[in-house]
């Protein structure tokens, strides 16, 4: 049973180079649709979605950033209060893959280890144009100690698993300042257990 | 070493091309028919690449392509329209010169010419009163196009202006003018900059400074909404980054966007002087020109439009979602109208209030202004804090205004539409034919007409461009007569070093925004002439009353069209009339506190200037414009007046003229104003 009154809110910030498919991933997740063309994001776009998980309900606040932008001077707080940073690259663009290091670094600088980072290789449908193998992605994720998954927003591949994975890794109910907290304790424990086991599975290279 | 080498450049350019292409390929997918055509994509690409190469300090930033695309679209649509008309009405596009030289259809051409002349001379004559020719049976718009295609007429050949050959070039120039600001104070490149630009007083990146300015303006009109957003942590740049960078391009459908751009480009981007300059005080650059102020006004009007929806949520992301998904069904004219009233408020901030002090609430900065007031006039120590208004006051005001607006709106829209249509032809002709025409209000009126919208965006940008290029005078059709004059005054006043009246910005605001709402409740307190103040204090009072008058004046204009609302406004409109005695005695009184002849001169000048400006406002309102149009010219001098402070002669006179507008015979007023205007022009000549 998900407690309606104690809806946990989490901020997810989407980072990555221009045109790697950040908006497409979000749109696929939000509305389960895909357009071949989304206009370039200017500044930041904001979306939110409630996710109903087995054991709880969470409210995800998605910050979809423009790829070209380095916001730090304009919006210093854009990473600061986010629980999750989703760093996306295009498997058909090596450069976008190389640049993920910079993004990860930026998030670490701001948040240290107090943040969940997911490395996402998008556009797996571009089989012929692939420039970054799944192994490279996995090894980088291991090296940087972040989660990893490959997706295709266009084909609708692995989008839901991506968000389920994120939700499972979210900090548990201990951050909730709700009166219902006591009721949730055992659920909390359960979820953090699955959390840990999943995290291990991921670092082992769970491409689903 | 690689950076400057040929290969380095090569790779950088390749990178640039890739970035540009990535964005262009996904530009306006829903308008695919035009923007995704190879021809359009090619032009956009070349223009952007060239511009970026020529402006390496800026380079390509995401969003630029969306500033360029509407410009190209406007050119394209105009050109397409001309082609259509050409094919459809081929017979009418006779070349007069050829006709004359051949001599076989001389008589026809002779007649044609006569009609042309009479149309030019007597703009007000409706086309159907002119002698019958087959041309008259055509649609007026098509007639205009045909007239404008007269290769040897005053306007030159429209076909050349709208030639496909020059389209790319024109689009580049317009884009460049937009980006670099054409020497005005609004350059869109600034909004893309992530570091402070030169001359910035705040030390903030321009887009952050502008965002702060928006919240500053918002806090002035709706402090509760402002504090709601601040409490939720909704920083202004979260949403204004996009609003400003593409000039609202993402927030409105293209056809609505073009109307908004019309308004924005029609506003002067020239930087207005302020007391803040050179005093080391902070000032929002975006408020320093009427264009920048209109952009801010537009943004704040949009926030206010979402007011109840924003206040209803306690979630920052939801707020931002709403701000960045502006409703499509918005009433655009109403929004623009609101933006304009906020524009004059923003200009007031700039001109009156020298130190908005970043991050400090509007209400907190008030005492500072009062203090500077004290410096300038010695006998002021006993001034009571006339403008102490509780925070809830603005909220109340806004609510009342909002309600009143809603009620009024339908009839207003209907009426203005019919009125505009009635004089459509004569007006259109004047705009299109007369090169020296510079009345901005007419341009505005025109821009409300869908049929004309595209060309006006273009015209306005080309105006900017031509300013920049310093073309010969007859190509620059924007020289705004009062502007140099205004500057003159401000210089004079800066020498006088006086900032009296700053603490009255409150009442201005109240009138601007409180409109015809319950503004009478405060007026007596502000303008009570019986309070035992010193001379300088008297000045203040008159300033205050003058403003209340301007405000009420605008609502009276409005009431001319909507007699139903009289009950609310009339009591206000009477007030200034009571206070304002006859002109002579007012001037006498003012001369007392003023000592230097220079001051006197400037105040007199101001007096005349206002007279002239007043007439602009009058003309507009007589034509049945929306009330903002009438209000804007009326408020502008008002803003300067606050700067000029001590010259209460003009203040009182202005109130005199405004108050009388509805009481005195209109013709009489017109004559007086013409007189005033011509005197003003003479004085200008003498001064220069």
Relevant terms:
heterodimer, A: about 210 residues, Rossmann fold, 6-stranded mixed beta sheet, disordered C terminus, B: about 700 residues, mainly alpha, globular, protein transport (chain A), Ras-related protein RABH1b (chain A), Small_GTP-bd (chain A), P-loop_NTPase (chain A), lipoprotein (chain A)
Task: Give an overview in words.
The complex is a heterodimer of chains A (208) and B (688). By secondary structure, chain A is of the alpha/beta class. Chain A contains 5 helices and 6 strands; from the N terminus they run βαβββαβαβαα. In chain A, strands 2-3-1-4-5-6 form a 6-stranded mixed beta sheet, with helices on both faces. Chain A is globular. Chain B is built from 33 helices and no strands. Chain B is globular. Mean pLDDT of chain B is 63; it is low at 98-132, 276-281, 355-391, 416-454 and 471-664. The chains are: A alpha/beta (208), B mainly alpha (688). Chains A and B meet through strand 2 of A and helix 1, helix 13 and helix 17 of B.
